[in-house]
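Feature request, filed as a ticket because there's no other form

It would be nice if the structure record came with a short human-readable summary line next to the tokens. Right now we just get the raw output. Example of a typical job, pasted below so the devs can see what we mean:
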Amino acid sequence: MLRENTVSSKEPVSWLLGEEQEHLVVEVAELRRRVAELEASEADRKRVEEELIASEARLRTIIAEDADGIIIVDREGIVRFVNPAAVDLFGRTSEEFVGELFGFSLMAGETSEVDIVRRGGEVVVAEMRVVETEWHGESVSLISVRNITERKEAEEELRGQALIFENIHDGIIMTDLKGNIIRWNPAAERMFGYYQNEVFQKKLGILSTRFIKGKLRDGRWTGEMDFTRKNGTEGICETTVIPLRDEQDNITAVFGVSHDVTHRKQAEQELQRSYDKLRETLITTINTLASTIEVRDPYTAGHQRRVTILACAIAEEMGLTEEQFDGLRLAGLVHDIGKFTVPVEILNKPGRISETEFNIIKNHPQAGYNILKEIEFPWPVAQIVLQHHERLDGSGYPQGLKNGGIMLEARILAVADVVEAMASHRPYRPALGIEVALEEITKNRDILYDPAVTDVCTRLFIEKGFTLGQEL
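Raw output as currently delivered:
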């Protein structure tokens, strides 16, 4: 089924039949006129007839081989001839064409765009143009047909790209290979403060751009840039730079898409300043809390700080995240704050303590957790304190956690706590020394203490010269 599009144009088209075909059409008509004029002269008539036959043969050959569809229709609109290109374009056989009504009403000399519905329902867009001529002695319409579906799709795509270019919220800048600006969309005008005519053919340096950070991947550079607006204010944009290539893969221009992130970056910087201020406030609070327990227990003065220094050194070697590191550091500084609940006479008792007294001491991780859980830390400080006496085999306290149930930060704090406690002086015994402390954690590696943490701690003292007297 064929259906006609209403789009038409009276503009001539260069592709109509081709120059040679048009010349032959005119030539055939002229020769027929000459035949009529020269009937009196038999010799001239025969010569002209022979030229006519040769020209018509050439015309048939060219029409048959033409890449565009050619259809010849008589005065009643019946198809008299169709070439292979037209058969292929319409998706019909010659037999289905010839002898049938053409079905399109076209004006001679006009170019029309029509939709052709091929067999199977596929729709193609074609341009048709009509030339009035003669064919085997009768007046006919010679219709040339060209498939322009791909061209129309390309035009639509270009129109879509143009709409995107003009209406996208990100600035689009295109430069030639010398860095001269050749395209500049409205969003770029708003972002940088320059109209396109102010920057056209000027160097990109007019924006005082400076790459901050970025990476090159799959031929595209993506990153952040500083820039200066026309009014002198500075901004930051996220930019993707793409090289444009021709069919020979040669770079012909550079295409950049920039998104203004100035306000977001300012908000992030303000948030970071607030975070840093909160962090310092929390550290001050923690140090104050830590000092209170040391006032009650002079024998363990400095114990929490030394444990924290060792725990942080282990964490750094193990590559913990900044968030994990900060949480461990604060937890280390107050890991014994729960000893507030332990009577001073038990903490400072010079001899061996009883089982009852030890059970009181064993309650200090839970007591510390109860104190710290009320503080809204951005890190799991209270949970780390609660778990710092847990052991891999479940023999620890207060919850008897095993293996994966114990946080990594608590495992690190546990090893650091044992090493510092054994290596330092206590009321009930003299210092045992670092060698004995390292022997303890090595002997119970993967039983009581995390093997990776144990290995790192041992390496710090033996290979890297770490000492418990270092500053935090």
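Something like this underneath would help us a lot:
The domain at 266-462 is CATH 1.10.3210.10 (Hypothetical protein af1432).
Residues 350 and 428 are 4 Å apart (CA to CA).
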